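ugh ok fine here u go
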Amino acid sequence: MQDKVKQAGEVDVSIVSENANWTFDVPPAEFERHIERSIPFYRGGHDLVAQLSDFFLPENAVVYDIGTTTGAIPRKILSRHPEKIFHTTGIDVVASMIAYAAAETPDPRASFVCGNALEYEFEKSNFIVLYYTLQFIHPSVRISLLEKIYDSLHWGGGLVIFEKVRAPDARFQDYMTQLYTEFKLANNFSPDQILNKERSLKGILEPFSQRGNLTLLEEAGFSDIMTVFKHICFEGWLAIK
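structure:
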């Protein structure tokens, strides 16, 4: 029975994962295809982040994308501002993702670092992105990362966070779970793939409620916070120092 519980299961084409053992160390191109089918308005969120960057890029601005995976968000920001002088750094713990991001982003204004953001020495910065990243960081150290981000931002700098969120009570959580399952089925995930993904994320994906995320931001020092995206159990906020 124990071997059966640990058995790897397919969560998408070319992506398999064991119970409670999800990893981002998967083929980067397959990851992009998988995540776009898994998260509503995933690419639209990239566009929104890039649009928000318009307000936070003075000359020689410093931008960070924490949990950059394939570097899609830095590329989106760079392409939106082809003539601006600024630098963007993508940070991720998965070496294969960093290698892919660097290869796909030849712009000299971009760099990519394989490392843990909790241990990284941030420069004073203007714009920081956490795009479905905080939910994978252990709850006990999330406040430490947010405090570090707050301290690194210039006054008036912006932090954009997108997260999967828990509903405020069990009834609403049931509604949201069923709607999200319907979304994945409509995107051609099989019931087995959906179940395998849920099993693989146990103890790894730990979403907070909207209130929980806002409380973290406030405890880190942010007071000016606005919702910029909401769909089913996915939300995005802009916090300004």
